[in-house]
Amino acid sequence: MTYVVIDACIRCKFMDCVEVCPVDCFYEGENMLVIHPDECIDCGVCEPECPVDAIKPDTESGLESWLELNRKFAETWPNITVKGTPPADAKQFEGETGKLEKYFSANPGEGT
Ligand code: SF4
Ligand code: F3S
User: Fold this and answer.
1) Residue 58 maps to which CATH number?
2) For the chain, how many structural domains are there in total?
3) Whose CA is nearest to atom 2 of ligand 2?
4) What is the DSSP secondary structure assignment for residue 30, as one 8-state letter?
5) pLDDT tens-digit series, residues 69-90
6) Does the Cβ of 1 fall within 6 Å of ligand 1?
7) What percentage of the chain exceeds 70 in pLDDT?
């Protein structure tokens, strides 16, 4: 199994998760992060760190497409190991639905 980042992260991108991951398996897009499923060791410590509940174990149902998205973009976006500054308007997007369709960006982030 692995953990995956879901749409709640989009445009929130708080990055508390990267600080606790023991294997540095987060990858940075322009407005969200993803987890590399083959690098995640399923420790679960990142899940409670996310303020918007955007990290889920892939054992939950209905996350297949998120697993695919995490895998796809973890292979092209840069690795991120240090928490950066969240978007200034991050709070505005907390709890919003349909963020994948409205805001997802395939562009890479800067990485650290
Ligand atoms: Fe990293 Fe553990 Fe979270 Fe996987 S579950 S992304 S290894 S902190
Ligand atoms: Fe995203 Fe939550 Fe991490 S908003 S960047 S998964 S702390």
Assistant:
1) 3.30.70.20
2) 1
3) 50
4) S
5) 999 999 999 999 999 999 999 9
6) no
7) 100
